[in-house]
Design a protein that fits this description.
Layout lengths: L15 H4 L41 E3 L8 E2 L1 E6 L15 H18 L3 E7 L15 H4 L12 H11 L3 E6 L18 H4 L4 E4 L2 E4 L4 H17 L4 E4 L9 E2 L2 E2 L5 H9 L6 H23 L4 E4 L18 H4 L4 H7 L4 E2 L14 H10 L6 E2 L2 E2 L13 H12 L6 E4 L12 H7 L6 E2 L15 E5 L2 E5 L8 E8 L2 E8 L4 E3 L4 E9 L8 E5 L4
Amino acid sequence: MTLRPAPLVLALAVAVAACGAPPLTPPTPPAAPAPPVAERPPEAPSPPAAPPEAPARPSGVVVDAAALPGPAREFRAAWIATVANIDWPSRSGLSTAQQQAELRSLLDRAVEVGLNAVVFQVRPFADALYFSPYEPWSEVLTGRQGQAPSPWYDPLQFAVDEAHARGLELHAWFNPYRASHPTQRGPRDGQHVSVLRPDLVRTYGDYTWLDPGEPEATDHSMRTILDVVQRYDVDGVHLDDYFYPYPVEKRGRRVSFPDDASYARAVAAGETLGRDDWRRQNVDRFVERLYREVKAEKPHVKVGISPFGIWRPGHPAGVRGFDQYAEIYADARRWLREGWLDYLAPQLYWSIESRGQPFPALLDWWGQQNDRGRHLWPGLYDSRTLPDVGGYEPEQIVRQVRLVRDDAEATGTVHFSMKALLDRYSSLGRNLGTGPYAEPALVPASPWLGATPPAPPAVRVEGGRAVWAQEGSEPVWQWVVRTRTRGAWSWRVVGGGVQSMALPAGAEAVAVSAVSRVGVESPARRVDVARP
């Protein structure tokens, strides 16, 4: 994400042999001495084991969950930006307990508003908000790059655990190329890529940038992302709009990104493309490789990208504005058409009434490019409801949510950013939570990632509670618990670790279904509640 008013704010170490430094390892506490083994007399032989009882046949009947009233399918997410301490932590240098309390509060608020996912920024500028063997701790945590939180904890692991406990997906948000940010105050750590491998980094304006034309630079970023996919139970990997940097000017003239050396090496190795097409090819190859390698590690982890909201001026007709295809070499339309992502969240950061960048026309145009049927979840600029940004009344965002719901292709939205959903800054969160997000929603299914539904659970009613248990081997991410009272169905969505729920007074029946990690719902098992 960015601190500029329109686009979002938008890689590890090269191989250990290349950087000459061993990977870092987390502190390992000394092992406690093993307790002495108490001597005891030999036990009497056990009697022969009784033959196992046949498992009880599940009660109730299996019904098609889609035939029952139930939750809508809608992605409802917010970005939690950490760069410049936009959303979390509120400032650097907070204690571990304070950081954790703030993050819990944000996640609680996400649930109150009716969200079902958060997009958590973990790599703002070639640093890490988690323990990384490749990159230093981010200064947004402690005020000094490379300094771990004290007492030690892993913020990403904490965020994953706390989000999942609340039934929220957590998508890890990476900036693949940015290596510094103007808001940085302290010195760079010795393990930062700009120190270890300055030959891979370019200075451009107020930023430093990993050169997308340097293969070792892209390997570096890819390694950091895949490390997170391998070690953390994240639900998605997310990139924003920063690929090549947004252009800067000096004395009224456009400054070219300083990649003469990397382009010359590519040409010497046989590259025949002009520089602009070569730059786009560099980004395309990164995006395609990211999708392929994430799926090789964990097929259920979604890959999402949130590009600038205009592909090119004139698409659709009448649209004016920044040309991401020509200026930052991002061909987001191709990524969507090729299926190199599971969702696209174009930043539609303009009002419904905007003439040069009309929200409805841009939304419709992006839907028309969705040849592969991927998720289209546009980004909304909630921050314009904040007093220090301005420009929107909260109702503008509510209207945009409703407009997205009416679109033939889009199935959700992402809100920038979480701060704008807090009551102390805006009434927007309250308006969403009591309006379009008043009822819970399931994240739309991604059947191309796995269409096998879980088995219907075993369900019983005892002591005024519905009790259920997983059947079969397909992992369960969530349960949908429907209850019928006075002939009307109501429902709740609870986490996969929950296995019982109190029934409302007068409940006549309960039906429980399982939802897989990629959102596929099982048939429901319905059990009638005996009348006293």
